[in-house]
Amino acid sequence: MSEEFLSHCRHIAGEPFVLTTAADMAPYLDDWRGRFTGKALAVLRPAGTGQVAQLVKACAHWRIPVVPQGGRTGLVLGSVPDQSGSAVVLSLSRMNQVRSIDAVNRTMTVDAGCILQQVQDAAALHDCLYPLSLASEGSCTVGGNLSTNAGGTAVLRYGNARELCLGLEVVTPQGDIWNGLRALRKDNTGYDLRDLFIGAEGTLGVITAAVLKLHPLPKASSTALVALGTVRDALDLLTLMQDRCGACLTGFELMSAVCLELVATHFPDLPRPFARLHGQYVLLELSSCESEQQASGMLERAVAVALERCIARDAVVATSAAQSRGLWDLREHISMAQAKAGKNIKHDIALPISRIARFIATTDAHLREAFPGCVLVTFGHLGDGNLHYNVAPPEGVPHDEFLDNEPAINRIVHDQVDAFGGSISAEHGIGALKRDELSRYKSPVELDMMRAIKAALDPLGIMNPGKVL
């Protein structure tokens, strides 16, 4: 059966684009962190939506599971196959064209395989901004961003990937093509099918193209790093900045002292803006459609008020693009510094902003009681309530040995997230890694509704099986 199926796939996509040898498939089977390697019957690399539809139709006929794949930057095993070897990986990397840009309507229609940075650059050529911004923007793809409802550093002002998408083109599990590429901001003509597929992680169909929402390109931006004593001070600073700067506040990133010490240790060439260590730091960014003077003046005045009110202990305001880049490098190198330091137990969580300080204090205490000496590496997008709450081993404890505590640590963290009204996944999705955790924290009613949608759209269960549900 598999040979007949693969021969049919070669007829559709072409011999070079149906990969079956171990060496050819290897780059598509590892997860981003290098902790898991799946197996596949084949890797299929279609050239367009028509080929995707034909390939999925063939998979439905032969009952072959399909694992859609974009840039492979996910962190929850959502885009890699399991180890059964029965599934095909459907890589959309060849589908990477910007189909059209409408600068007046401020929309862009792109293939799902477009690299995020490619989309940002194409928008800028038309004096527009596509504001989704991620550390992996040089390799992640639009299809992957939408399938996980990616967030990033500009959610505070512009929203998640869902808010930046107006329409979709999707290949259904039956191999049909739904053309929902409508560039409309108002369309009340029934169920919003677009929102079913955004965040579904490829379990309901394959996103092949999208209409993205563009914004005016800011004339200038201004950046500051503010030193604070506590997370509570950071929340007070957020309120102050929102009151004084409104929609100009684009980024508000929290970093603990542990984070900056890690960066300083493993990337000593990066700036060290302050002479002494503080408990917490916030990286602020304002953008203006008027002028650099407006952005920098507004930021300087707001920071001065924070210092006068003793909310902030110290601050550095960038006076050049290079200084701004240096401050952002501190934030963007945290994950790389963690990787250099060794393995740790990661959590991508969301909480009501007002409860974040109490959550951190309470959860830190529980973890330190249960695992004395553990190192808590806390950073994230405080402006939208998204924390990366990571737990590293105590000094001298082997990292692999400490990872054996992952289930117990997850239980402490996720139970506290639930108690504070939060979510165990903010922007990375569920994939296979958090599937069992999801069933613990979602209500039976909610899970039943999700299963009903899955059964209705994918009755054969071939779309990314084992992920989410």
Automatic annotation (TrEMBL):
Cofactor section: FAD
Cross-referenced InterPro entries: FAD-bd_oxidored_4_C (IPR004113), FAD-bd_PCMH (IPR016166), FAD-bd_PCMH-like_sf (IPR036318), FAD-bd_PCMH_sub1 (IPR016167), FAD-bd_PCMH_sub2 (IPR016169), FAD-linked_Oxase-like_C (IPR016164), FAD-oxidored/transferase_4 (IPR051264), Oxid_FAD_bind_N (IPR006094)
SUPFAM superfamilies on file: FAD-binding/transporter-associated domain-like, FAD-linked oxidases, C-terminal domain
Any one Gene Ontology molecular-function term assigned to this protein's record: catalytic activity
Domain of life: Bacteria
Record keywords, A-Z: FAD, Flavoprotein
UniProt keyword NADP, yes or no: no
Residue ranges of every copy of the FAD-binding PCMH-type domain listed in the record: 36-217
GO biological process, one term: respiratory electron transport chain
Family: Belongs to the FAD-binding oxidoreductase/transferase type 4 family.
Protein name: FAD-binding oxidoreductase
